[in-house]
């Protein structure tokens, strides 16, 4: 199946939002915001079996929110800020819509109260 | 079950991110960014049975991303910008962590290259 750019973008956003919809995964992102860490460092604060914790790591990695690298026997994780920037851009686009609406509303009200204004 | 403020906040974020992890629901948010709309107006662009579309509306409503109101026989939906502001705040907090890390790194490097600096 070949996906269009828009389908790839939408599917990427689905995965990123899905990855962020869990408190453990958000906590991992928060920890990695302070710098790269090994899987065992990341797992330490959570009362969770390692296989369950690894599922969260895989969801984060598949979504592109983190990258992992194996150095010998230690897997190190780092945050991928580009994925969170995509969320930031999406939010900014939504905000631009509401603000555009407010501008148009103000313009509409200004024109409605100006009796010299006639339709063209 | 009584949830702490932090648990309520985390569970609220789970619901908001979950609500945003779907292209139909994001498109509804985008449409409502231009102003309130009825369910039938919102459903019109999607090739989807009404019960399936209503599931998306309920997910958005439960998460707090939209509010709905029944006027006679018409249900009108409006965006709740506060929910998206919570996502924006979370993203800003993450960004502050990375930026803090960069600042600390610069400070560390500056101290390391200053031979007059001694440990206290």
UniProtKB/TrEMBL annotation, chains A, B:
<dbReference type="InterPro" id="IPR001845">
    <property type="entry name" value="HTH_ArsR_DNA-bd_dom"/>
</dbReference>
<dbReference type="GO" id="GO:0003677">
    <property type="term" value="F:DNA binding"/>
</dbReference>
<dbReference type="Pfam" id="PF12840">
    <property type="entry name" value="HTH_20"/>
</dbReference>
<dbReference type="InterPro" id="IPR036390">
    <property type="entry name" value="WH_DNA-bd_sf"/>
</dbReference>
<dbReference type="InterPro" id="IPR036388">
    <property type="entry name" value="WH-like_DNA-bd_sf"/>
</dbReference>
<dbReference type="InterPro" id="IPR011991">
    <property type="entry name" value="ArsR-like_HTH"/>
</dbReference>
<feature type="domain" description="HTH arsR-type">
    <location>
        <begin position="5"/>
        <end position="99"/>
    </location>
</feature>
<dbReference type="GO" id="GO:0003700">
    <property type="term" value="F:DNA-binding transcription factor activity"/>
</dbReference>
<keyword id="KW-0238">DNA-binding</keyword>
<protein>
    <submittedName>
        <fullName>DNA-binding transcriptional regulator, ArsR family</fullName>
    </submittedName>
</protein>
């Amino acid at each position: 199946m070949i996906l269009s750019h828009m389908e790839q973008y939408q599917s990427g956003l689905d995965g990123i939002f899905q990855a962020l919809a869990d408190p453990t995964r958000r906590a991992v992102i928060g920890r990695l915001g302070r710098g790269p860490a090994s899987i065992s460092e990341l797992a330490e604060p959570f009362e969770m079996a390692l296989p369950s914790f690894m599922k969260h790591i895989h969801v984060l990695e598949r979504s592109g929110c983190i990258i992992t690298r194996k150095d010998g026997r230690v897997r190190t994780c780092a945050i991928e800020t580009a994925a969170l920037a995509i969320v930031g851009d999406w939010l900014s686009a939504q905000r631009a819509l509401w603000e555009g609406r407010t501008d148009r509303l103000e313009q509409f009200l200004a024109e409605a109260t100006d009796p010299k204004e006639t339709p063209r």
